Request: fold
Amino acid sequence: MQTSLNTAAGVLAQFSQFLKAGQLGFKWCEQCHKPHFYPRVHCPHCGHRETVWRVSSGKGRIYSFTIADRIAPAIIEMEEGFRLTSTIVEADVHALAIGDEVVVHCSKGPSGEPVLSFTTPAANRARAYSQKALAQIQASIPSADDGAFPLNCVAIIGSGRMGRGIAMALINAGISVMLYDQTQEALDAAHKAIHDEQQKLVDKARISQDEAQQRSGRIRATLNMADIGAADVVIEAVWEQMELKKAIFAQIDQYAPSHAILCSNTSTLDIDQIASVTRRPERVIGLHFFNPAHVMRLIEVIKGPRTGTHALNLAKVLSNRLGKIPVVVGICKGFVGNRLMMARERQAGQLLLEGALPQQIDRVLRAFGLPMGTFELQDMAGGIAVNYMRRQESGEKDLIIDRLYETGRIGKQAGKGYYDYVPGKRAPVPSQEVKSMLEAASAQAQIPRRHIGDEEIIQRLVFPMVNEGFKLQEEGIVERESDIDMVWQYGYGWPSWKGGPMYFARQQGYANIYHKLVELEQRYGESFRPARLLKELALDQ
Reply:
């Protein structure tokens, strides 16, 4: 308890100090025995000057609120009996109701100053779960202090978008890079892209010009594969095609030093098949960087059946050196992140044929808590072209994606994909052309279009993801259930206040999800068939 300073500025300064400590301070009048907020020199109830500071429990209930995108401006009634106006943030605001409990959750303003806000106990429980899951991963990373894991030079094979991003992640962490490609034109383009990215950081005052020059000086470009002979780690970052990667790894195996580990930046392919063309499969491992590689914090570390402990530990050490989260996964199509994503995208495409539009599906996913909808993400990341090219070997057709690709609607870089993109306007624009394409595709597939509600969209998109997560556990692809959630938090932006797909399943109740999947299987077929593990957990509840 502390006597108030006798000026308004002093009151505000003291209030700010409470916020910096993560506390909510309020004033108590010794004359009328009432609390008040916003803190003032005089008691607003009786005008008395003898007011003192007290620290609130930080707990309150929602008196009224509205929803503005991802936050909820609200009037909060605190346990101590006063009301205040604030915002509820980093929580599932679409699930709020009058009378719900909220707790103080100080945010940071534009200049880093503390700003009073609130969140929900459920969001805090999810954050605690997320912090524990992350700590388990970090505890498995060995120390690099004894010199057992040298990282003096990393060679990168391929200077395209992923190769450049990986190179930037390395030079930003102080690691020298040998960047190989087959043409000088490709290397020059990579050099310009990396230089421009560093200059952006200088222009934003995030690094100095000297630091930018030091980083750029850590890259040596080469057209000679033999130059990778000085590398401790070699990372292949070429197109996602098995025969191409095998050919590259045969060359890498020829020139890389015997102590080096050989890594493939693959998002879907069998790392053991790639290792089979080398003489050292125990030193081959997958490192699935997420785009943009110098920004995204996740690396899926893909361990093959012949991958040795040293290679696995060095991959973890490298990830940690880059400031990234290494989640170890086994071999399956799509590993963890993309396997769940593919399950979602299959259903999203089917929903388009049945009557939903991209903007509706993306709106529902954003309201659910994800930073982007599935079609916004595909447009941004080039998913239409990747999906189309991936199916060319098998001859598999897709009524929607094939038409988008063939008409040049391949994403944001082309100015059109699932959405239209207007120069000078950041937000995607719903496309009448795409709407017409979807109607034509539905007619060709003989699927009558209908209204689809938001709840059905969530069930058909998120529940199959959860189901794949249980299958991953059955197959031994992940060590811990929470690893799946960490992949989706750090690779796809699933919010920490919602835990992850598997945490979401636990909160929803395994029995509820199981019975809904059974219902969906009866309506739509075996793609919704519940995993054995989910069924067992549901029956135990």
Residues 347 and 461 are 6 Å apart (CA to CA). The two ends are 48 Å apart (CA to CA).
